[in-house]
Amino acid sequence: MACVIDIVGSVIAIGVMSPPTRNTDRQEHASVPTNDTAARAAACDLLAGVLRRHRRANDNFELAVRSLEPRDRAFARLLYTTALRRLRQIDLVLDVFLTKRPSDPIIDLLRIGVAQLLFLDTPAHAAVGTSVSMAKRHHERFGGLVNAVLRRVSEKGPAIIADQDAARLVTPTWLWDSWLEAYGEPVTRGMAETHLTEPPLDITVKNPLRRTEWAKRLGGRMLPTGTVRCKNAGRVQELDGFAEGEWWVQDAAAALPAKVLLHALYSQKNKAVVDLCAAPGGKTAQLVSSGCDVTAVDVDAKRLERLHQNLSRLQLKANVVEGDAIAWRPSAPVDAVLLDAPCSATGTVRRHPDLPFLKRSKDIALLAETQCSLLRAAVEMVKPGGLIFYSVCSLQPQERRLVVESALSKDERLSLEKILPSAVGGEIQFISKRGELRSLPSQWSEHGGLDGFYGALLRRTPYS
């Protein structure tokens, strides 16, 4: 999708510090491949969607890149995720060279240009040339502005960002302060620094006996928990084994809740499990491929379409239900419920750098209320002696332990079961002192990090 830059009314006066005297070669800007321009335009549109229309980038992505080839789709994604990830740093650099803020579309164009120059090692002639070409389509003077600013950024920008505290700058104050209180400064800084990096591609192999084989075939390696981690994998749909349904994409941390529940259910036969808030289906696939009779429940019809598609590709079958998990009940009590509750998802900021711009501190309390309601509903779904695994991909304490503590204090039928290290591949660092699951983005630095997840294994008393 083209980047829409509308200037309404008279041309806005824009001030810019004069560029240094240098010999500029206009021919380096003259020939810009259309697809390169289109990828950058799509990145501008996605950036605007997050910052001003408050829409999740993933919801807009397919529309924005619909006319692009796979390589250019990947480039557009890299551009807008880098710009979002480094936005505060980029804006402070631009403040040095702008005496007056231009219109939002021109700012976005400059942001994408700075992201290329300072964080993606894009050649200056390509980053500047495409940006100038796009700006000139709307008014000649914008081309001059963009050219002048980006040339100064190319020369002076590296020294500016070298003096920045990147981890602190890119983390919203409300998140930084809440993490500081919950985890302390070293862990908070470690998480924020991890969020500055591109995430790896993690996959779960359908047949556990073939994990080593698929790690080799995909040029990856097997992590201690059994996830296969790949680097620079290219377009997922084109990788070996995807179309055949041999594996699915799933962050190493996101794979842990189902692993823990399956470990606890190991000795039971013909296990009936309800997967609440199941879409897009990674955890459902884990449960089904391990032999469970699974009912997957989600309220979002569009997300359930994706779950159906994923199960079909993987050649796995589950009973899929569209319904509100708080009100819905199975026809008979089940052995276990996996509740991966809707949350702020602050543990996935590295994969979704738009989240800090879409979430607010006031959202957390409302989400916690929903989580408590879902957990109460889950208790009613399991038979006496049954298990419930509650998890969230959030780093916020209000959505983690506090939800579980509230349930334990209000429902005498519930008790907390300690998770054994063997359930998570012997990675004791993922188990809290109370026996809960706790992964943090700052962990596994030697492997490239992972998402932040919390989980608690609960049991309904046998005679309740």
Task: Describe the model.
This protein is α/β, with parallel strands linked by helices. It has two domains: 138 residues, Orthogonal Bundle (N-utilizing Substance Protein B Homolog, Chain A); 260 residues, Vaccinia Virus protein VP39 (Rossmann fold, 3-Layer(aba) Sandwich), CATH 3.40.50. Helices cover 45% and strands 13% of the residues. It is built from 18 helices and twelve strands. The strands form two sheets. Strands 5, 6, 7, 8, 9, 10, 11 and 12 form an eight-stranded mixed β-sheet that branches. Strands 2-3-1-4 form a four-stranded antiparallel β-sheet, with helices on one face. A hairpin with a 5-residue loop joins strand 2 and strand 3. Helix 2 crosses helix 7 and helix 13 runs parallel beside helix 14. The termini are far apart. 45% of the residues are buried. The N terminus is likely disordered.
